[in-house]
Design goal:
128 residues; mainly beta; two-stranded antiparallel sheet; 8% helix
Length: 128
Amino acid sequence: MNISDNIIKKNTNNINTDDVDIVPCNMSVLVKFYEDNPYRTVETMASGLIVGIESTKKYKSNETGEMENNDEVIACAKVIAVGPKCENVKVGEDVFVVKYICNPVPFRKMGYYMVSESNIMCRIVKKD
């Protein structure tokens, strides 16, 4: 073990990671992205043509000729937690957000991301 490892071990020696939870600060919203958008509508036309399926998760690049991943820009996520100054977004809601402005949160490999409430595009709510 080198000196850096000793310092880190010494600094984390008394931390109980089993007894903690993650709580966003200020206007931050903790989200977890769905693998697929649960609100996408898929229809089969009379001709058999399927409309609404994102068949573009992979595509053949004209530049390289290779199969490439097509990343989503706007994605649907579940709200896991909200900061105390959030006014509109609530825990448990689904939201749409620009994926590239979210910051990954390295907490227990949960796949969480943090975004400011002001950067959430819209919420999914029940109709009245």
